[in-house]
Specification:
The structure holds 3 protein chains of 3 kinds. By secondary structure, chain A is of the alpha+beta class. Chain A has helices at residues 55-61, 67-72, 79-94, 100-128, 134-154, 176-198, 202-208, 216-221, 227-231, 238-241, 262-285, 340-344, 348-352, 357-367, 371-375, and strands at residues 14-19, 31-37, 40-47, 163-164, 167-168, 254-256, 307-315, 318-326, 334-338. In chain B, a hairpin with a 3-residue loop joins strand 1 (212-213) and strand 2 (217-218). In chain B, helix 7 runs antiparallel to helix 8. Strand 6 of chain A pairs antiparallel with strand 3 (399-401) of chain B, so a sheet runs across the interface.
Chain lengths: 376, 402, 209
């Protein structure tokens, strides 16, 4: 039976294909069952769960401290902000104060994580568009510098395991601040090079502008957070709204877009990266001395009082929250993660209907998901 | 041997060698008709050999150039600087299992690579590689090029259809749509040159670009306003015909698998790959012939360097720019591709045609140059801004809150 | 009115600059050609745990006292310890069996943090590929024990701090022991003096008899 035997019947008009789970552009093991009419998408069902690793159940079995390295593996591109969200939720649950120097260190490594996440995002979106990896290699060259900083500070490039309850695990080795400042000083030049390569590029503009616009009301109703929400014009950045940590001591601007299409989501992360550079410079300049962890907080054998808490931070992907219930014992009773990547996928079908099949990858790329977070 | 004739002998080395070999055979009493056959076989063999070696070299050099653009080393393990990589790739391709889907149309599936390769090789016959070095001196050489070159499009569809796979058919249909749309600007740009020269023979076109303005500036057609635009259009259409970035949608890896080549493995895939590169060289060769002066040297005193060196040097340069473009630009979507071909490139090619005609009939003087520049410049700016006005950096504003 | 195509041209200029720059500028071409060039790891780099022993004999110099805190705190539970017993069956402060399955270990360094006896530390060897999982990646005590000299060579700062802490502890213990000995001596001397005072009364009846 040849491929076109059913020409003329109803089933010839639509084509069902499955994009993934092995696919060069789905950012992990992610599957989309797409129904196409010609080149246009009429239905899209995301299928995930290929990377489910029982994170929340494992956390109920291990102690509070032992859950920290597992949070590294959630959004594996930004491990340190995952650590921070968990430590922040536990500190809220048990009422622990964070050491002053540790707050500054948290902001420094957190913003560095944001920089390297947005650099990787730039590279991946361009790779999805078929730019044969040039932008990817430039972006990863910058990201390597930041990962080298993490390695000399925490011992591992990615699975850093850096935050502890009430502070950070280890202090800066000699020469680290100077190296970090060098990386931060060069980063705007890298962003300028990427903008020269990409932003005026007519092919890029044609592929990103006008694709899958998302209105502000719909974005809020769909539970979006992070750059996707701000690109749709909603002024909501948890660093400003909650003012967690010491973010209200730094001057930085929160950008927002107008149309909320792929181009806005793309450009917004570039602008955010520039703002992060500003925050980093202020934090490095204001770094005080002192202990890096609250001496009254116990790490091993930690038993918070019974109760519940929801702690959230602005991770590079969106609002990353941990909802923790403690029953007074040395292990969590309930450990629930609010994954921004999963909740940002809520509107994926709606964004993709009516676009061409080639755009589906771009839309998925600009929503910027990581499967470790989607599936946990 | 006359010492002063040495440069000529060196410059005409291929012809001299062939003549010497044939005279050697004739002295052994080989009949004249056999000499003609042997001469043809020698020429064909040399050309195929040269282009297959070029293909092998380009496949590794492309990876190395792409790598250097991306700030990394390319293949550098096999052989000196990695130049034996094509040998390793060839061995890999040949020893792979040749899979044919059970429900595929066997004959069509088998013939597709052949039908792709043969026209790509046949069009190499009319390109002038040097002074007096055209394998087949055809009066309608350009016509022959396009007529035979269209055979590759049939092969693409044979590959897609014969695989009996809905993704391959989809990929093949997009590839055909792309190739057919870009044939028109390609041919019209070539016709512009033929019109100005007054002949469809490639060697005549090259000879017509041989004069030097002001005694030193080469009279290649690319240095005229209409020629520059026609060259650019030809170049873009050549990228689309060879399915290269930014027009590599049919092979889009991050989209629908490998398009029409999904069901090909091993030696058949290598044949497709080879045909694509040889086709790319052929079209680069035609671009060099039509617009870049073929085997002409850029400055009068540089004619000591052999003409065939100039030809292959220019082809290498054009191929390098194609690789450079591949490293930089993202892929175009199918509807943008079609809009670009029909609504921008086709009117621009007509504008170039008109500009060339005005340039010729206004006497080829300064007034003619100015007139033709205006006739191509105005449509370019108007059409270009019409299309890019919808997508522009300046129509996006981002607000900030403190 | 901008020239259409200028964005593409600017992009081509950037890639050309990178192409030329990769031949001349050192920080453009950052590839390290492994395995001929190995990366220089920073001092803090960690891969998998190992046990530290002082001196030259692993069995007598090892610092581990088999408290089993690391086994309890390890998140993926890749440590397995069995305490040693002496001839009479009483538990002694050494491990008989100490296994770490580095195929399971997630290099989180929590075992190092919680160890009270400075005996388990992180190694930085990363070329650990093997053909067989259980014979090569399940490290037993003999494979895990490495000397303090080795520890000082891979993590000098950390080793210096650890040695400093151990030295301070030892001095404190010696001072405590010396104080205890001095106190015991003083108590014995007082007891002896009291016995001497009581002794003449004992001798009197003998003298009168």
């Amino acid at each position: 039976m040849s491929a076109l035997d059913s020409v003329g019947s109803d089933e010839a008009r639509t084509l069902d294909i499955s994009l993934g789970p092995q696919h060069p552009s789905t950012h992990g093991v992610f599957r989309m069952n797409v129904t196409l009419e010609g080149e246009t998408v009429v239905k899209l069902k995301p299928v995930f769960g290929y990377l489910h690793r029982n994170h929340e159940k494992i956390a109920e079995k291990n102690s509070w401290l032992a859950a920290m390295p597992y949070t590294d593996r959630l959004d594996y591109i930004c491990p340190i902000t995952n650590n921070w969200a968990y430590a922040f939720a536990v500190e809220k649950l048990a009422g622990i104060e964070v050491a002053e120097r540790a707050e500054y260190l948290r902001v420094i490594v957190g913003e560095l994580t944001r920089l390297q996440n947005h650099a990787a995002f730039l590279g991946f979106v361009l790779g999805d568009m078929g730019a044969w990896g040039s932008a990817l290699m430039y972006a990863f060259r910058e990201r390597e510098k930041i990962l080298d900083l993490f390695e000399s500070l925490t011992g591992a490039r990615m699975m850093c395991n850096y935050m502890r309850f009430g502070g950070c695990r280890c202090d800066l080795p000699p020469g680290w601040i100077e190296a970090a400042l060098k990386v931060v000083d060069y980063f705007p030049a890298f962003l300028d090079e990427m903008e020269a390569l990409l932003t005026g590029n007519e092919i890029l503009l044609a592929r990103l502008q006008g694709v899958a616009p998302l209105g502000a009301a719909r974005a809020i109703n769909g539970g979006m957070s992070g750059p996707v929400l701000r690109a749709s014009g909603v002024d909501y950045d948890i660093r400003k709204v909650d003012g967690y940590g010491i973010y209200n001591r730094f001057k930085f601007r929160v950008p927002r877009g107008e149309v909320g299409d792929c181009y806005d989501r793309f450009m917004l992360r570039v602008i955010e990266a520039r703002e992060s550079v500003g925050i980093l410079k202020q934090a490095i300049a204001g770094l005080p001395g002192g202990p890096i962890v609250n001496p009254k907080a116990k790490q091993r054998g930690f038993r918070p009082p019974a109760g519940e808490a929801y702690g959230r931070i602005e991770s590079p992907k969106g609002e990353l929250g941990f909802y923790l219930i403690s029953d007074g014992s040395d292990r969590p009773y309930r450990f629930r993660i609010r994954p921004p990547s999963l909740i940002n996928l809520t509107l994926l079908e709606e964004l993709c209907i009516g676009t061409k099949i080639a755009d589906v990858m771009i839309i998925l790329g600009t929503v910027d998901i990581v499967l470790g977070e989607v599936d946990r | 041997m006359n010492f002063f004739a040495l440069p000529v002998h060196f410059v005409q080395a291929p012809n001299e060698l062939k003549a010497w070999f044939l005279s050697l055979l004739a002295s052994f009493g080989v009949p004249a008709w056999l000499l003609v056959v042997i001469s043809a076989v020698l020429v064909i063999g040399t050309i195929i050999g040269v282009f297959l070696v070029l293909f092998a070299l380009t496949s590794v050099l492309e990876r190395k150039i792409l790598a250097r653009v991306q700030n990394r080393y390319g293949p550098n393990r096999v052989g000196p600087c990695g130049l034996f990589q094509p040998v390793a790739d060839g061995i890999k391709m040949i020893t792979k299992e040749d899979l044919v889907p059970r429900s595929a149309d066997k004959i069509v599936h088998f013939l597709a690579p052949v039908v792709m390769m043969v026209p790509a090789l046949m069009v190499l016959a009319i390109l002038p590689y040097g002074r007096d070095m055209v394998p087949a001196e055809l009066d309608a050489g350009i016509l022959y090029f396009f007529a035979v070159g269209a055979g590759t499009e049939v092969a693409v569809f044979m590959a897609g259809w014969g695989s009996n796979n809905k993704y391959s058919v989809l990929g093949a249909m997009r590839a055909i749509a792309q190739m057919v749309s870009y044939e028109l600007p390609l041919i019209i740009s070539a016709v512009v040159v033929a019109m100005v020269t007054g002949s469809l023979a490639p060697s005549a076109i090259v000879t017509a670009q041989g004069d030097f303005a002001f005694g030193f500036f080469p009279g290649w057609y690319v240095f005229t306003p209409w020629g520059f635009v026609a060259c650019l259009l030809f170049y873009i259409a050549a990228l689309a015909e060879s399915n290269r970035c930014p027009f590599d949608l049919p092979e889009g890896e991050s989209e629908l698998v490998a398009g029409h080549l999904t069901e090909y493995s091993g030696f058949k895939y290598a044949t497709f790959f080879m045909a694509e590169y040889v086709g790319m060289f052929a079209i680069c060769g035609l671009l060099v012939t039509l617009f870049l002066g073929g085997w002409q040297a850029p400055l009068p005193f540089l004619t000591i360097v052999p003409s065939w060196c100039w030809f292959f040097g220019k082809v290498a340069f054009v191929a390098f720019t194609m690789i450079w473009v591949r490293a930089t630009l993202p892929r175009m979507r199918i509807d943008h591709l079609m809009t670009f071909a029909w609504k921008f490139m086709l009117p621009m090619s007509f504008a170039a045609f008109l500009a060339a005609a005005c340039w010729h009939y206004a006497g080829r003087g300064p007034l003619a140059w100015a007139l033709s520049a205006v006739i191509v410049g105005v449509p370019y700016l108007v059409l270009g801004n019409h299309f890019t006005a919808r997508f522009s950096v300046t129509n996006r504003r981002y607000q900030f809150s403190e | 009115m901008n020239i259409p195509g200028s964005g593409i041209f600017k992009g081509l200029v950037v890639t050309a600059r990178n192409f030329v720059g990769s031949y001349f500028e050192k920080d453009r071409l950052t590839t390290e050609q492994y395995p001929e060039e190995r990366p220089t790891l920073p001092e803090n780099a960690r891969s998998f745990p190992f046990l530290v022993y002082d001196g030259t004999d692993p069995e007598t110099g090892m610092r581990c006292v088999s408290c089993k805190i690391c086994e309890k705190e390890c998140p993926p539970q890749c440590i397995f310890i069995v305490q040693d017993r002496d001839a009479a069956g009483k538990a002694i402060k050494r491990p008989k069996v100490f296994n770490i399955d580095i195929a399971v270990c997630m290099s989180c360094q929590i075992c190092v943090e919680v160890c009270p006896f400075e005996s388990i530390r992180m190694d930085n060897a990363y070329e650990l590929s093997a053909y067989d999982r259980f014979s090569s990646l399940l490290l037993d005590k003999s494979k895990l024990l490495k000397s303090n000299t080795y520890y000082r060579s891979i993590h000098p700062t950390e080793a210096a701090e650890t040695d400093g802490r151990i030295e301070a502890d030892r001095l404190k213990k010696e001072a405590a022991a010396a104080a205890k000995a001095a106190a015991a001596q003083k108590a014995a001397a007082e007891k002896a003096a009291k016995a001497v005072e009581a002794a003449p009364e004992l001798q009197k009846p003998e003298a009168s008899a």
